[in-house]
Amino acid sequence: MVWETPYFSYAVRELPKGCQLCVRGEKLVLFTTGKCPRDCFYCPLSETRRGDVVYANERPVKSLDDIIEEALLMEARGAGVTGGDPLARLDRTVEYIRLLKEAFGESFHVHLYTTGALATKKNLEKLYDAGLDEIRFHPDLFNPNSRLFKVEIENIRNAFDFDWDVGGEIPSIPGQFERMRRYADFLDNLGAKFLNVNELEFSETNLRAILDRGYRPISDESAAIKGSLELGLRLLEWGEENTSLSYHLCTAKLKDAVQLKNRLRRMARNVAKPYMEITEDGTLRFGIAEYDDLDELYTLLVEEAEVPAEWLYLNREKGRIEMPEEVAVELAEAIEGDVRFFIVEEYPTFDRLEVERIPLP
C-alpha cells in the first residue's frame, strides 16, 4: 500500500534509515565535491558548487574542525554525503566519513549518493572500511546506451559484497516510466532495500535545459515540474505489487516545508543570541540599526538613549547593531536623523541568509 507520510511525501513499506533522520532535520549535508563524471541536464547544483569545493550544510569547509562544528551546532545524528559524485574525490570522502564516525560513534548514521561510475570494488571497500552505513546509486537511466551507463550498472553489483544498506535514488522525469521500472526490477533482483524517487524541480542552473525538453513547472509559485509527482506515485503503486523494495517519493514540499525547517530549528537552539527570537520556521528574528559610523551610533544608544549594553551587539561584519525587536521599535520612534532601523529574519545557518527585512518608521 502506498501511504502518505507526515512529511508531505509518499512511501511503500518503511523509509530508509537515512530518510528517517533527514526528514527530522537530523542529518548533516556533507558536500564533498562538485566534480562528477556525468553532466545530467536536470542537475540542480548552483554555480558556486560546480567546482571542487566542500560544504557542511551552508558552511564552506576549510578544515576538519568546520565539519565537526557544523554537526554539533545542528545536533546531527547522521550525515548525507553528496556532490557532484563524492567518489570523484574518494580519499577526501573516506577521510570525512571516518572523522564523523570517530567523533560521534558508530551509531552516527552516514549515507552516500553516487552515480556508480567510480564504484569499483576497491573504492567501495574503502567506503565500507571507513564506516559507511548506506549507499544510494543514481545511474544515468536516461542514456541507457552509453558506455558510462553500462559501467555504472556493472559497478552497482559490487555493492552487494558488503554488509550495508544498498538502494537507488532517481528523479521522477515525466515520460520515463519504463526506464524507472526496469531499474526498480534490477535493484530488486539484486536484493537492494529501497528505491528513492525525487520529484523533479528546476533551479537557476537547470531551468533552461528543463524547459528546452518541454517540461514545465506546475505553477508560478512552485519549482516542481508538472507530471513528476504523478509519475512517482505510479511507480510506487507498481513497485508495491511487483517488487519487495521499500520506496520513498520525496516531494518538493518535503524539502522546503519539513526537512529544512526541522534542521533550522535544531540549529537555532544553539545559534540564537539572547536578543533573538526563534520563529516557528526556525529563523532568527531581531531588530537592527544601521548608520554610517557604528561606533558613534553605539555611543548614542548606550549613553544618550540609555539602552543597556547587554541588549546590543555590534556586528561590524554586517555593518549594523543588533538588538531585541521591541527595543528597535522603541528606538525607531524616539531617535531622529539618519539612523535606519529594521526588523530582520535570518536563517541560523553559517551564511545567515536574510529572508525578510521590515523597515521601521
Automatic annotation (TrEMBL):
Q: Which cofactor does it need?
A: [4Fe-4S] cluster
Pfam families, sorted: DUF8061, Radical_SAM
Which range is the signal sequence, renumbered to this chain?
none
Xref: InterPro entries: Aldolase_TIM, DUF8061, MJ0021-like, Radical_activat_CS, rSAM, rSAM_sf
Give any GO molecular function from the UniProt entry.
Answer: oxidoreductase activity
Ranges that cross the membrane: none
Q: Keyword set for this entry? A: 4Fe-4S, Iron, Iron-sulfur, Metal-binding, Oxidoreductase, S-adenosyl-L-methionine
Domain Radical SAM core: residue ranges: 21-234
Protein name, UniProt field: Putative enzyme
Q: From what organism does this protein derive?
A: Thermococcus camini
